[in-house]
Amino acid sequence: MSTRQKYNMQSNIPRAAIHVGKDKKSFSAQVGNEAERRGWDENVYRLKNADKEKNNHYNFSRKNLNFEIVKDGKIVPLGSNPIPLHERIQMRLDELGFKPYMDARHPDQVSKNSPNCTVAMIFSGDHDVLYNLAFGNQRIDTANPDADHSHIVLQQGIYKWAKDTYDFACRKWGEENIISFAVHCDETSIHAHVQTIPVEKVKKRGRIGSKYVNKNNPDIVLSTKEWRALPKEERDNYTKQTASKDYVECVSYAKVWGETRKAKSEYLSQLHTDYHNEVGRKYGLARGIPYNELSEEEKRGRRHKNKVVLEAERQAKAALDKVEKYAVLATIDKQELTFPLLNIKTPVQEAMDAVKKELAIPIPALIGQKTWREERTTNINDAIKALVTAINVERDKQNYGIRASVNKTYTYYMQQLNRLINENRSLEAENIVLKEENAIVKERISQLDENAIKRVAAEKDEMIGRLKRQLSVARDELTDIGNDYNALLSKYRNLVLQWNEMRHQPEIIDAMLRVEERKKEEAAAKREEQAKQSRYQDIIDRFINEGYDALKSFSKTGRIDFIEKEANAIYYGIMATASKYNLSLDSAKRVEAATDKFLAGMVWDDCSNFRKECVTSWTKIFATKGVVYTEPLCQNLLAFVDHMSCSADTYVSLSGSNGCADQLTNWDGTQKVGLGTPAKRKTQKR
Question: Of 82, 393, 554, 654, whose CB has the highest number of CB atoms within 10 Å?
Answer without folding.
Answer: 554
